[in-house]
From TrEMBL:
Keyword Transmembrane included in the entry's annotation: yes
Organism for this UniProt entry: Formosa agariphila (strain DSM 15362 / KCTC 12365 / LMG 23005 / KMM 3901 / M-2Alg 35-1)
Localization of this protein: Membrane
Primary location group: membrane
Domain Methylamine utilisation protein MauE: 1-135
Lipid bilayer topology: Multi-pass membrane protein
Top-level division of the source organism's lineage: Bacteria
Cross-referenced InterPro entries: Methylamine_util_MauE (IPR009908)
Stated name of the protein: DoxX family protein
GO cellular component: membrane
Length: 368
């Protein structure tokens, strides 16, 4: 039993630290995932949506700390009870998402490792098994160091987590796992190869045939049936290949400018997924960037999901000399974890990407 507890202690502790640090690297991204869970379509806890970022930081910091506490043997009973309650909650959440197909990615490992809902549930079941071993053998969990040293390490872990979380909030994630990272070519990440696996989808057609309900399954074609059509349901058997970027476009006045802009040299994208929620200092910062970039010969455009009314108000207030284009809000949230943020593109390749706090770090050389 003692050896099993020791293995479980290392396995659970390391996994909680890794999982927590990946999410702590991008707490804003995890907060978006929590908003999805809190939405009316999933858990219907919409009153929690405004607090999603605070909750995300608290959850991931606590997750990392529990991993550290377990490894160093700090307050074993408190740690094991906390681990058990947390894993029970997340096991329920992942089962709910998987069974009702509510959330397609739990966000357990951020953007670093994508898990399907059932994979997430399976992972939590495995963790629950090992945590139950820890719960049964908590008497074997002893501190690795003296009481004073263990307390100091626990405190340093807490301070380190808060410091790291604050840093990435004020700047950008230290490690970017998304297809919009520096060095990525956005256009290439949008292309679906001709030989890519196609989606396999079953269509369940429901008809009323002579007063009886009959269901016929096809791969898409409308069945020939002597009866009245009622409805059709679909089931994805295999999603096939999906391009890393599949929901991004740049539009204005009903026209699609995506290909044009992503094949242009020296483009500055000023991204604000929601202009009403944008930081005022951030809007002034991107105004300064836009003026300098325009002067140096760059093509400057704004990207937002906000409507024209707020666009026009801010253009007048901040004297923006660039035009705003429309893009999907979810895509813009994915591109840069800053509202607003700045990307520099050259033929679709991201050469620079910064939080509005770091616009002074941009290298806007003359290109004309």
């Amino acid at each position: 039993m003692k050896a099993l507890v020791s293995f479980s202690r290392i396995f659970v502790g390391v996994l909680f630290i890794i999982s927590g640090l990946i999410k702590l690297n991008d707490p804003i991204g995890f907060s978006f995932k929590l908003e999805e869970y809190f939405s009316a379509a999933v858990l219907n806890l919409t009153f929690l949506e405004p607090y999603a970022l605070i909750i995300s930081i608290l959850v991931v910091v606590f997750e990392v700390l529990l991993g550290i506490f377990l490894l160093i043997g700090y307050k074993p009973k408190f740690t094991v009870w906390s681990l058990l309650l947390m894993i029970i909650f997340f096991t329920f959440l992942t089962f709910y998402s998987a069974y009702f197909n509510k959330v397609t990615d739990c966000g357990c490992f951020g953007d670093a490792i994508k898990l399907t809902p059932w994979e997430s549930f399976s992972k939590d079941i495995v963790l629950l098994f090992f945590i139950l071993i820890l719960f049964a053998g908590v008497r074997y969990i002893k501190p690795v160091f003296s009481t004073f040293q263990t307390t100091v390490l626990a405190l340093l872990g807490f301070i380190g987590c808060l410091g790291f979380g604050y840093h990435v909030l004020m700047h950008l994630p230290t490690v970017d796992f998304r297809p919009y990272k520096v060095g990525a070519n956005l256009w290439e990440n949008m292309i679906v190869p001709d030989d890519a696996p196609k989606a396999d989808i079953d269509y369940m057609w429901k008809f009323n045939v002579n007063g009886k309900e009959e269901v016929i399954t096809t791969k898409g074609s409308y069945p020939t049936v002597e009866g009245d059509f009622i409805s059709v349901d679909t089931e994805v058997i295999d999603p096939g290949y999906e391009a890393p970027i599949h929901d991004f476009s740049i539009e204005r006045d009903g026209q699609d400018y995506t290909e044009d802009i992503l094949h242009d040299d020296h483009v500055v994208l000023l991204i604000a997924y929601n202009l009403e929620k944008s930081e005022k200092l951030g809007l002034q910062a991107i105004k300064n960037v836009a003026d300098k970039a325009t002067e140096n010969g760059y093509r400057v455009i704004g990207l937002t999901a906000s409507g024209e009314d707020i666009q026009n108000i801010l253009k007048e207030e901040y004297h923006f000399k660039f035009d705003f284009y429309f893009s999907d809000e979810t895509a813009l949230k994915t591109i840069v974890r800053s509202n607003p943020g700045v990307l520099i593109l050259n033929q679709g390749t991201v050469t620079q990407k910064v939080h509005w706090n770091d616009v002074d770090d941009l290298n806007l050389i003359k290109v004309n």
